[in-house]
Sequence to fold (1216 residues):
Amino acid sequence: MDYQHLIEEVYQEVQEENLRGKVADYIPEIANVDPNKFGIALVDLKGNVFGAGDYKEQFSIQSISKVHTLTMVFKAFDTKLWSRVNVEPSGDPFNSIAQLEYEKGIPRNPFINAGALVITDALCSKFEKPIAQLTEFINEIAGDTCVKINPDVKNSEKNHGERNTALAYFLKSFKNFNNPIEEVLEVYFSQCAIAMSCVDLAKSFSFLANDGYSIFAERQILSESNARRINALMLTCGFYDEAGEFAFRVGLPGKSGVGGGVAAVMPHKFSIAVWSPELNEKGNSVKSIKALELLTNKLEFSLF
Amino acid sequence: MDYQHLIEEVYQEVQEENLRGKVADYIPEIANVDPNKFGIALVDLKGNVFGAGDYKEQFSIQSISKVHTLTMVFKAFDTKLWSRVNVEPSGDPFNSIAQLEYEKGIPRNPFINAGALVITDALCSKFEKPIAQLTEFINEIAGDTCVKINPDVKNSEKNHGERNTALAYFLKSFKNFNNPIEEVLEVYFSQCAIAMSCVDLAKSFSFLANDGYSIFAERQILSESNARRINALMLTCGFYDEAGEFAFRVGLPGKSGVGGGVAAVMPHKFSIAVWSPELNEKGNSVKSIKALELLTNKLEFSLF
Amino acid sequence: MDYQHLIEEVYQEVQEENLRGKVADYIPEIANVDPNKFGIALVDLKGNVFGAGDYKEQFSIQSISKVHTLTMVFKAFDTKLWSRVNVEPSGDPFNSIAQLEYEKGIPRNPFINAGALVITDALCSKFEKPIAQLTEFINEIAGDTCVKINPDVKNSEKNHGERNTALAYFLKSFKNFNNPIEEVLEVYFSQCAIAMSCVDLAKSFSFLANDGYSIFAERQILSESNARRINALMLTCGFYDEAGEFAFRVGLPGKSGVGGGVAAVMPHKFSIAVWSPELNEKGNSVKSIKALELLTNKLEFSLF
Amino acid sequence: MDYQHLIEEVYQEVQEENLRGKVADYIPEIANVDPNKFGIALVDLKGNVFGAGDYKEQFSIQSISKVHTLTMVFKAFDTKLWSRVNVEPSGDPFNSIAQLEYEKGIPRNPFINAGALVITDALCSKFEKPIAQLTEFINEIAGDTCVKINPDVKNSEKNHGERNTALAYFLKSFKNFNNPIEEVLEVYFSQCAIAMSCVDLAKSFSFLANDGYSIFAERQILSESNARRINALMLTCGFYDEAGEFAFRVGLPGKSGVGGGVAAVMPHKFSIAVWSPELNEKGNSVKSIKALELLTNKLEFSLF
Fold:
């Protein structure tokens, strides 16, 4: 398969369609990103990199980092984790608090904000220096010292963090939060502020396409069966309340971020990261999703 | 792969675990089924059949028939269908009406009751003799005159049909229902009353494992890409509000019915049907799900 | 108290404010009413009538008739009624079905549509000729053969009745509906189609201002304590999801209808009916509410 | 009217019925109160006090203090207040956060927790020493230096305050919270920890029965029309999701607290406070409500 040609073709076709959305504007650091940025990087199971456009440029990966954190925490707690967070699609917006109330403090899944806060709380319970260790972990599986935490983004997130703080206190009221809220939020906002390039991001997802083994870290990151489970979770819950649509149109497990990035995997084939800042009304990158749809159509395969 | 051996092993292990649930009791015809029935049938892409237990015995496939109807309607309307029904997981029970109100008459997906009613309404718009033609279609893709519609089940469904009737009128109030309600409900309850054996059911799902081509009908049932889309829908929405859990534990696209059946596919490998009447509290067959979980664990593959 | 002068003053001031809303447009018979109609009639406890504007003209009282039906049914069933319908404000729109689902088929109160359907069902259980007997009852307490049921309105209601039909089937699925749905809906739509003038309507509410005794019927309609209870219900639930606002601004028990009418009582003083077709977004008559607010302000009394 | 005789009769009858409920147990200071305490105090418009049982003993008035705070804030902001908080009954439990989400940060009314937090926030915006000034205000309108803030209760409330903290952050995320959250919560928990006797509490409500004029403070506390509005609010929203039931059975404006107290008024007649710690499942005092119901039945009047 000539992935380089394929990616360039996809890149070209998406650019020609001139799709527009709206850059997220809740913090200035995201709002001010050049909306025309667009990059694609694909990494096959041997570690070959194929790229197009701005694929080497760092961007704010935001919620995509929830997959990295979940991986560390899943490794540490295994199935015990699922008493604190469910694995069902949400159907509600990512930051909804109503569902959490109806379901008595057990978030629907680890990728909505409430669930990610529980995961970060679990991270803080198990790791002494959670931010440093998370950074180190991502660097390891990306095979490069690539992770930067943008301090301005982190501070802006913090200053707009009332809703996440509310979720944390609400979780605590249901006894589903164990560490000091301030500490956990510090970690949470730091992980949201991670900047990476498409190529490094795709590399960091490689183990999920490879039955849990990272060719960059040269070790088994998760058991084969737990790696599969993270893929299942991404497929059913990785795109907020548009997860069904993404499965339907694209058919790959993946995770999006409000910075316009999407990371996805085709199991036993490749991992891929796409970035374009303009979002649709569900908060997913318009061009990134289109690129992945074209890609699976051209490849004539998806999961299904 | 020695599928026969595999299936017998799974059958044996599930039997030894002695899992219990509760047979659905809303109609006598379902309530009175022997709770100890248990069958598995797997059909590979060449049409070889592997079976264990009561796999040749007919049972009420109930909601599994929604996949057959959807296939006919999807073929007839293609993408126009998706203006009337969404493709997102529901998160609510299968017969919930609240979500339909919040979302102004557009059901979340074609497998919750409201969505299935829209699909059946669409069937009635396109096919002159919907029940006869649906029966014929299933027979064709199962490669056998196997479908029976149990008249007692149908009448019982009808007599307990107030909630579905309410959903139909509610859809009509949102102009998302085109045919006379009585007529559509007649078809709907008939399709719920279809009885098939595991082996025939697995055969009828074979085209979904085979890029849309049925080796039994010897024709392309759906385009490769639309067959994939039905698989995606089954994965994200096929098990009511337990779809995430099923994806997480089993990782195959599938559809369950309140009669205790589950039909599923492993794309490019096989289709499979399992039946055991006792259900968990979400309405899915306890043993059938366990059997599929064991199977994918033993095979060491799933979608992911 | 010079009620005639007071009412004319109120009438004049409201006219000068030139408040506008939107005439209900779901059926042509309501949509085509002259939007400039405006009438007020006040009836004191001696039966003296004071009126202004179009107070002698008949209009479609719509949901106001729910008070008359409730009165008959409350008399017949007394406290047994409250196992089938609650007495709490709804907070949701009048035709919401979601709440009914969450609360397992027990409507919040007798004035939302679901509750009114239960009341009408109870009417049909107790009265042989429910429409004729309801008409007769209203004529009796209004002291005049005044009630007309507009057949065009009734038929239009029926033709737009899918949502109410859905509610009825939904209630039946919860075993909170005893009579054939068609029959009950016939009565329901008939009662919605009642036409009365402000003066007759005010007279028919007189017993609620008079501890249950009607000076027109010359008999005790309800016990003093049950009459009080209907007033309490009107205060907390009589104006859909604007009941709190009406209590806050006006402070009288009352009931509004989508035809633009409002009937209200000041206990131990008077009953009153106001009519003006243009509605605010909550479905209550803009001018009628304003008129009642001015009235209680000028009188310097309300319930409180 | 021989109020003393009446109250003693009511007291006796309630005691004989031996109604039981459950003392609130979320904080030890409330949980450990003697469940057999029971007191009634009625104050007429001349300031005569009539009492029975433990009516001179202090208890934790909890949410009843929300009426005092609202009075101060309503006086300070007048109608501007209602852009920040609505006046509709809630239908949901007092500490629900879901409704706040659906209604974009505008609480349903000033008596549910979210609304009371907005009111306390407004208090902090207008008053330099909110706790001291609130205390002073209640003392003034009760005609006595009677208010104590129980420091143990306050600290316990604080230690169980995650849910209220979540509500405050959630309000802040909707820009409906202006002061530092810690500061406002300090005031909020202090006001919940106010201890008063029935007699002092009834006196402090006297102005609401008297068109806004306090005979104890010897001044107009609120305009006649605003006093009426607070009564309307208490009637529609004063008893959590049991407000309709209370209006239906008792028919007086009032406010309950989780400590088992209820304060109510009969406009132009009297104010009354009742206390008994055991609560029904909606969180309202079983005996207190029964006592008020008997009282209005015996008096043969209520609002209606």
User: Anything to note?
Assistant: Chain A has 14 helices and twelve strands. The CA atoms of residues 14 and 48 of chain A lie 23 Å apart. Chains A and C do not touch (no CB pair under 8 Å). The radius of gyration of chain A is 18 Å.
